Request: fold
Amino acid sequence: MVAVADSLKGRDFVRIADWSATDLTQVLDLADELKRAQREGEEHRLLPGRTLGMIFQKPSTRTRVSFEVGIYQLGGIGLYLSAGDLQLGRGETVKDTANVLSRYLSAIMIRTFAQDDVARLAEHASIPVINGLTDASHPCQALADVLTIRERFGRLEGIRVAYLGDGNNVCASLMVACAKLGMPFVAATPASYAPEERVVELARAAGGEVELTDDPREAARGADVLYTDVWTSMGQDAEREQRLRDLAGYGIDQGLVGLAGRDVIVLHCLPAHYDEEITEDVLYGSHSAVWDQAENRLHAQKALLALVIP
Reply:
C-alpha cells in the first residue's frame, strides 16, 4: 500500500501561490508513486468511502474524467454537479452552498469563471476545496505540467520553460509553479496579451526568473520546454477573429521547435486548434509530451486528493 503523509490534510488548493515548493513537491512525489502503483496493478485505495463533489460551471473533458476516474481509483466516489443541478445556479449564495455541501461531501472541486467564487467557497466550506479552473488560474494543470517536465528531464531546477501565445490562466499558474520550483520562465505574447502584472510580480517575489517578450523566436531559442494553449478560451468566442489576427506568428511549428534545445519537449494543455497555436505534426511529433501531460492530470490530481482529503 502506498503511504501518504498527513501534513496537507484539510488544505484547500485554490492557487499555486498558496502552496510552498515543499508542498508542491510532495504532490509530485506521491503522483510518481501512484502512477507506478497503477501501472503495476498495486492496490492504492487511499480514500475508501470518501465523496468528491465536482461543480462544473464550465464544461470539460480532461478535468471531469481525470477527477471522476481518480477518486474512483482511490476508493471513493465522484458526484458531477452541473450549474443547472445546484441552487447555486438559481441564486443560492456561495456561503450557503459551502455550508450545505460540507455536510455531505469529503471535498469539493469547482471549475468556474470567477476566482473570487472559489476563494469564497474555500472560506466557508469546512472541507477541502480544489480549484479545477477559473478565468484567472488553473493550478491543477500546472501540477500535471511540472510532473511531466520532471519525468522527462529527471529534474526541475534550471529547466527553461517558454510559454507562447495568450498570457492567460494557464500561463499564470505555470509561471508561479516554475518560480517556486526553480525553473526560468519566459512568456512570449503580444503586449496586449501579456500575463497580468500582479502574477509576474508574485512569481518574481517567489524567487522566480521571469522574462516577458513579444518575440516568439527569441523565447524559443535554447528552451527546454515549449508550451502553448488555445488562443480563444471559453467565453471569448466573440473575440475569436480578432484574437487570430493579434496572435498570428505565435504558434508552435517545426521551425520554432528547431530553435529550441535539442531535447526540447512540447506541451499543450488541450484541446488543440491545429494551425492556430500549434501544428498537428508538432503535437504528434517526436518532441511532443502532450499525451503524457494529459495522462498526468489523473496522477497529479489523485495525489492531491489523497493528500488533502482527511
About this structure: The mean pLDDT is 96.
